[in-house]
Amino acid sequence: MFRYILFFLVVTLLSGCITSGEYLALKNDVNQLKRDYYSHDRDLAVIKREFNTVRDTSKQSVGRESFDAIRESQQETNSQLLSFSKELQTLQGKFDEYRFDIEKSFRQNSSEFDSIRARLDKIEKEMTDLKATVTSLRGAVSQGSTKRASAGEESKKGEVSKKSSPDELYKTSYGYLKKGEYKKARKGFSDFLKRYKNNALSDNSQFWLGETYYSEKDYENAIIEYQKLIKSYPKSPKVPSAMLKQAESFKNIGDRKSAGVVLQLLIEKYPRTPEAKKARARLKAFSAGKKRK
Length: 293
Hints:
Elements: H1 2-13, H2 23-64, H3 67-106, H4 110-143, H5 147-178, H6 182-195, H7 202-215, H8 219-232, H9 239-252, H10 256-269, H11 274-292
Helix pairs in contact: 1-8, 2-3, 2-4, 3-4, 4-5, 5-6, 6-7, 7-8, 8-9, 9-10, 10-11
């Protein structure tokens, strides 16, 4: 009965990924993750180039413009840096998802796993360093060239410190998730959502909250948590992944009909995403299974 309630919930509110038993599907998913990894690397390089351009421009402007012009330039530069911060945050979310799936996939092959993990560590460090530099430069741009601005900057540093606490909580919770300590990860992500519901990392936290249940094979609760992401953060880039995992969860509790409905909705709403491509393959597999019966 509970699965039908879940199915109704999903269908009403809407308007996982690597299957262990199918080697070919696993291989295809891993190859897709590799492609996503290299695409992610390229995106990061583009953001770094754009960031360097803004940084150089801001440095030049301070030396030659009047105070009013400097202030206008600061506002524009700060807006661009804020945009970069948001792009980095989105990139961080997708990176976390790719890393989690890649590490699960390659855990049996230690040599290849170590090589990929080293590359992932390198990218993660670059993103962390770049985020820190963006934060620092935003502070410097806001500081301006007067003592009053300098005094104001000291006050802002306290605000940045407060804003860094969500990142710390998220990183700690994600660390527990990677280590397989799902209860600790779940508590951390739950605390994050209670304290920072509208933070840039809130949608990621909601997704990983569902993932803690999925990893424990508690598929019914996973379905509910994925649905919370879909309902509360409809514009999140994690929604297609949540729908795919939700469909997989339905399949794992024996409700292939509900799984098929969610996969079809995923294809209709997000047709150009990698998740839609996987959804088509799963629907095809469902159809093939029915014919064999």
